Amino acid sequence: MPAIRLDGIFVDEVPTDAKYLDYLQRITDTVRSGFTEVASRRSHCSNKSNNNNDNSSLSAPSASSPTSSTTGPGIVIHNPGIFPSSDSSDAFFSPRLVDYVVVFENCLAAWWDSGDYVSANLALLTPEKRAKAIAVAHTCGCGPKSQAGGISGGRPQQQDSEGHHTDGEKAENSEKDAIKKNVQNFLNEVVTQHKLAGHFATSATDYATWCSGWEGYVEVACDLAAATC
């Protein structure tokens, strides 16, 4: 089983005031130089091990192995959670500053029901900026396109003595179907219509609990990825 590999840093709560650009640049420079240094050290250790221990069955992982860090300078993602203003957008999307920018982080209902905020700001993004933009939505069981209604979910009850599904199980299945439908609508807009670089969707109201609609999100995301390749 491949090991988990750290390829970059996600910087949360990023300010969008231009006066913080120098501060953000220092963070990015530190991240990238750190990843580059680690990759260089791993590569050096791997080469030294291969040269000096040809008879050994053990060696240090190479810089490109699954157990190592990225061989590049490290991916930097900024999360202001909102679109940078038009007058500073170029600076906040600069490749020198960042690799990806989370331009939307809110409940799913806000993506669909925020007036023209989302559509107007998306229209201002050039194709180059869209290729670096990410949208994140939580509370995907609610919103204008939800089929969940007043269902709150919960743990499924056990089958009765005859093996029939109880109301609790039916309610949870209905909620999961609604979440999956909402996620599919959201990802279709993010990926197919607006051609943004990335996305994340969760039915939870925060990121401290495991999403009950995780399987649905993964399935929709994989289908979209296969369709756009």
From TrEMBL:
Entry's transmembrane regions: none
Region (Disordered): 42-73, 146-175
Pfam families: Spherulin4
Regions of compositional bias (Basic and acidic residues) in chain numbering: 161-175
Chain intervals with Low complexity compositional bias: 46-69
UniProt xrefs under InterPro entries: Spherulin4
Stored PANTHER family: FIBRONECTIN TYPE-III DOMAIN-CONTAINING PROTEIN-RELATED, PTHR35040
Protein name, as recorded: Spherulation-specific family 4
